[in-house]
Amino acid sequence: MRKIIPVFSRKLSHVCSLKPYKETKWMMPNGNPIGAYVYNCVADQKVPVILNDPNIATWYSCGPTVYDSAHLGHASCYVKIDILQRILKEFLKIKLVTAMGVTDIDDKIINKAKETNSDFRIVAKQYEHEFWLDMASLNVEKPLIVARVSDHVNSIETFIHKIIESGMAYVTKDGSVYFDTEKYNAYGKLQKMQDAGEPADQYKRNKMDFALWKAHKPGEPSWKASWGEGRPGWHIECSAMVSKFFGSQLDFHAGGIDLQFPHHENEEAQSCSFHNTKQWANYWIHIGHLQLKGDNKMSKSLKNTISIPQMLSQHSADTFRMACLMSNYRYPMEYSDELMKTAESVLNKFKFFLKDAYNYVNNNATENGDYKYQILDSLQSVEELNLEVLRSDFDTASCINNLLNLVIKTNRVMKLENSEFYPIPVLLIAEYITNVLTKFGLKLQDSSENGVPNNLIDTLVEFRHTVRLNALNRKDKELLNACDIVRDKMKAIKVQINDSEKTPSWVLK
């Protein structure tokens, strides 16, 4: 049996992130530390990641309620979850078994079906299909397991039945089933209790009790159960489906910060009751909201949403992912033109660097290549530092900043006006940066999306470069203005030109 242990009392190699003398309800799992630390809301601090198997972890994400199109708030959440999962798999070498729940039975879906004079199943399938297309356009990897509520009603019924038998839930006169929060001593574990919950009524005993099963209403889909006809409540679906796939213990559970309470709180309560354990999910991962300037979170209820196709008509998926990488996954991210311009600028710095590195290695230099041990030392330092920051609660922003500093140092070497030539360190750094960015899920594509062949763009950019250098030497303002017009027109078709005194380069925006 595990014991509830104050986090500070364990001897750890990385205690600097742990608050001293912090008594928590979080229980340190038995098993194998992987050298990583994540923030856990139960402990209210970073805690060590410990897995039963040092190479395998389970991860469940709360998925969409498929009653409408996804928006940019959803995109931010799932792109960030995708990044965290890629870090575990690609950098920490964990074999991650991922699952996502899709809510295809819900009040909102039923209402949408009534509004459109359609079947709730058709509505759900339509919007789920659209959701996966949106995720693919953002290069979000599909989970290994997609669990739809409608496919698991029998499992959910069995799950509820056991909780009723344990005395932790009760059946009401109308055939609904409620979880009895008064009997669960650890309720409020994930978040300090606020004045929440619906008032008790003729059916519900306590204010904080929540529905495991909703009694049948005319005109709504329903399933038969031993206690009465109806349908699953919202919170129970995740617990039942996760338990079916992963058993009594889950490593990572992720979702938006708005799900911390009551959804995740209720999941933990009912799952611990079902499995007769004190801790069900070891690590809760909550993603901060996407906000608009002056607004709260982006949401349909506030009518301030931006669709994913709408964003992608103005910016690339790589640019949006870079914006996510430059932020902390736990905190709100303010979506604005400034944010996207900054993200695009950072992305282009990397893309220009990779092109410049290729041009540098393949130039017409007559001297032999040599090592630059100082820059190789910088590469090794950045490799070690990046692994350290990623192990510390997935700090991608620091990782990106470290890569930018490495680009600056390498650019200085490539611009040296002497006989020294260092192709090997430049190539190794370019390979490392490409490797890190692609592991984060960036595609770094240079294939033209505007129908213009790359070799034609190369020819035009090289011709403009020659004309521009001559104009600079002759101080011909009219010709320089003409070069600027060509640059701006190329930018309009998403071709960004980087002017250099040596070799020009271009990337797609």
Approximate helicity band: 40-55%
Structural class: alpha/beta
Average pLDDT score: 89
Largest beta sheet: strand ordering = 5-4-3-10-11
Q: What does the main sheet amount to? A: 5 strands, parallel
Radius of gyration: 27 Å
**Secondary structure tally: strands:** 15
| Shape estimate | elongated
Offer a concise description of the structure.
This protein is of the alpha/beta class. The chain has helices spanning 72-91, 107-115, 120-137, 153-165, 234-246, 260-275, 308-312, 317-325, 337-361, 373-391, 396-414, 423-439, 454-474, 477-492; strands spanning 32-40, 45-51, 56-65, 95-103, 145-148, 169-171, 177-179, 210-215, 230-232, 250-256, 281-287, 290-292, 333-335, 495-498, 505-508.
Describe this structure in words.
With 509 residues, the protein is of the alpha/beta class. The chain has 14 helices and 15 strands. The strands form five sheets. It has a five-stranded parallel beta sheet, sandwiched between helices. The radius of gyration is 27 Å and the shape is elongated. Residues 1-23 have low confidence and may be disordered.
List keywords for this structure.
509 residues, alpha/beta, 5-stranded parallel beta sheet, 4-stranded antiparallel beta sheet, 14 helices, elongated, disordered N terminus
Secondary structure elements and pairings:
Layout: E1 32-40, E2 45-51, E3 56-65, H1 72-91, E4 95-103, H2 107-115, H3 120-137, E5 145-148, H4 153-165, E6 169-171, E7 177-179, E8 210-215, E9 230-232, H5 234-246, E10 250-256, H6 260-275, E11 281-287, E12 290-292, H7 308-312, H8 317-325, E13 333-335, H9 337-361, H10 373-391, H11 396-414, H12 423-439, H13 454-474, H14 477-492, E14 495-498, E15 505-508
Parallel strand pairs: 3-4, 3-10, 4-5, 10-11, 12-13
Antiparallel strand pairs: 1-2, 6-7, 7-8, 8-9, 14-15
